[in-house]
Amino acid sequence: MAEVNSYRDLHVWQKSMTLVTDIYRLSASFPKEKKFGLTNQIRRSAVSVPSNIAEGYGRNSTSDYIRFLQIASGSLYELQTQLQIAENLEFVRHQQTQTANALATECEKMLSSLITKLKSKLK
User: Fold this and answer.
1) SS3 60
2) How many structural domains is the chain composed of?
3) 65 φ, ψ (degrees, to nearest 5)
């Protein structure tokens, strides 16, 4: 396992940064009149994931770190819901949401594993 010296070394942070890029590209095709609605919301949810991972990493306590990872996890579920809304409104195709959801699910599994590992250190 590679040494972690920064949140940037975390695979889950790297993967979530890829997710942000994908979501920005995907949402660029949303109708312009939705720019201040679903477009901004879906982008904020995506950005929240690596941002909370980084912020939690910078905290001085494991319990704070876990809390921020849980917030990141919640943002992933929010993002997946918004992707479904975008698909239902026919802003994107099913294949596009499948790809984004697969990456979000991968991030969620990585977060869950990290949270479990950190919780075991608290015991």
Assistant:
1) coil
2) 1
3) -60, -45
